């Protein structure tokens, strides 16, 4: 998420509009090392 706005960051580098629903496969996600093996390889 964008730190100042709290909105989702999309794959293209853009930030979601207010109220916009962005599918998970189109979000720029940062892997969480604590969840290795559960949600990502």
Mean pLDDT: 83
Strand coverage percent? under 5%
Number of domains: 1
Class derived from helix and strand content: little secondary structure
**Residues in helices, as a percent range:** under 10%
Profile the largest sheet: none
Outline the low-pLDDT stretches.
none
**Count of DSSP-assigned helices:** 0
Q: Give me the Rg, rounded.
A: 12 Å
The coarse silhouette is elongated
The total beta strand count reads 0
End-to-end separation: 21 Å
Protein name: C-5 cytosine-specific DNA methylase family protein
Keywords: Methyltransferase, Transferase
GO biological process, one term: methylation
Organism: Pseudomonas amygdali pv. mori str. 301020
Topology:
Layout: no helix or strand
GO biological process, one term: methylation
Keywords: Methyltransferase, Transferase
Protein name: C-5 cytosine-specific DNA methylase family protein
Overview of the molecule:
- The two termini are 21 Å apart.
- The chain is elongated.
- 0% of the residues lie in helices and 0% in strands.
- The model has no long low-confidence stretch (mean pLDDT 83).
- It has one domain (1-29).
- By secondary structure, it is mostly loops.
- It has no helices and no strands.
- GO terms for molecular function: methyltransferase activity.
- This is C-5 cytosine-specific DNA methylase family protein.
How would you summarize this macromolecular structure in one to three sentences?
One of its GO terms (molecular function) is methyltransferase activity. This protein has 41 residues and is low in regular secondary structure.
């Amino acid at each position: 998420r964008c730190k100042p706005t709290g909105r989702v960051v999309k794959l293209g580098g853009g930030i979601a509009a207010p109220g916009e629903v962005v599918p998970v496969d189109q979000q720029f996600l940062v892997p969480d090392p604590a969840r290795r093996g559960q949600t990502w390889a």
